[in-house]
Amino acid sequence: MWRRRCVTLRRKAAGGFVAEPPKRGKLGAMSWSDSIAVIGLACRVPGADSAAALWRLLRAGGCAITPTDRWESAEPGGGYGGFLDDVAGFDAAFFGIAPREAAAMDPQQRLALELGWSAVEDAGVLPAALAGTATGVFVGAMGGDYAVLAARGGAATLSPHTFTGVQRGMIANRLSYVLGARGPSLTVDTGQSSSLVAVQLACESLLRGESTVALAGGVNLLLTPEQGLAAARAGALSPSGDSRPFDVAANGFVRAEGGAFVLLKPAAAAAADGDEVYCLLRGGAVNNDGGGESVAAPQVRAQAEVIRLACANAGWRRPSWATSSCTAPAPARATRSRRRRSARRWAPAGPPASRCWSARSSRTSATWRPPPASWALSRWPWRCAAASCRRASTTPHRTRRSRSTS
């Protein structure tokens, strides 16, 4: 019933697939003494309702940015976005939720329920089997548009279900409740990095033994125009509705919505259980830009440092080949800084051993706020699968690129 993925750890172990543990790196008090296996995934993004469909969209160089029909906007760039086909539909009975309660729930909670459940099933695990287990749930989310809509209706429209329906913390908690999971349950808001930090926290929880398996991901829905209006007035949105990361023609980003989840397990446990694995997470790191020109301006030095720390925690020094997957906000200045931080990390001394690809996807589905990291985890395992099956490396088609930034 489920698709065959890249590798089966138990099957490949005898053939030498399982590498030696990476050199121990430090992440505070944490040691990445074991890799984390991605054993299940699910995503829903503009133009694609699965990871396989997303990869096909990227390979074809498709574009899912469209004019919005949800609201009117006179601001430059405010009328474009990457939108899901349906954010209202939800099978409440399937999850044992009463219709009135479902109506009061933030659609981001509903999307997290659907994608989290699908990621578990994609791993070949019965969701009911997680009840009572130390399964952690870590979700990145920064939007709260549904609370704004609820407030617009006035006090007369509020119900007891609104109390839990619009709290962002309930996005993760609702998923834990439906699964009966007893591990940590966190909704993380660190801005655009929210889902990446959620994945990092999930990995740390697994390495500590706090969780036996973990669901990690992010959701974002665009339900009101106010945030887009503010971004447009700040000059952040592309007036042409065209996000062009790493391009001299970059003139802003385009907002988008969607969600993605991965089911994670320690690699040793995945091997013992015979789980099929999309890919291995070898190391990670989190930091902050700190002071700088402005609170929103990327700081190349700090961002290059977090890449270096992640590689050190993975036991990597300087790989002979690498693919850098980036999500860029698209203003020319920001994309230049992201390219420079990658170059600074990979070229500390001497010429590069081989070419390092920088793959970006904001042009296809605009810029998610905040699930781009979990979305990247949804697309790159399919790249690995395609490469291993066809014995050829593939990279996404570069859409409408004129000239790269320096």
From TrEMBL:
InterPro entries: Ketoacyl_synth_N (IPR014030), PKS_Beta-ketoAc_synthase_dom (IPR020841), PKS_NRPS_Biosynth_Enz (IPR050091), Thiolase-like (IPR016039)
Entry keyword Transferase: yes
Keyword set, alphabetical order: Transferase
UniProt name for this protein: Ketosynthase family 3 (KS3) domain-containing protein
Endpoints of the signal sequence: none
Region: Disordered, residue numbers: 322-372
An annotated Gene Ontology molecular function: fatty acid synthase activity
PROSITE patterns: KS3_2
Skewed-composition ranges (Basic residues): 335-344
GO process annotations (BP): fatty acid biosynthetic process
Keyword Acetylation: no
Domain Ketosynthase family 3 (KS3), chain residue ranges per copy: 33-406
Comp. bias (Low complexity): 322-334, 345-368
Record-linked Pfam families: ketoacyl-synt (PF00109)
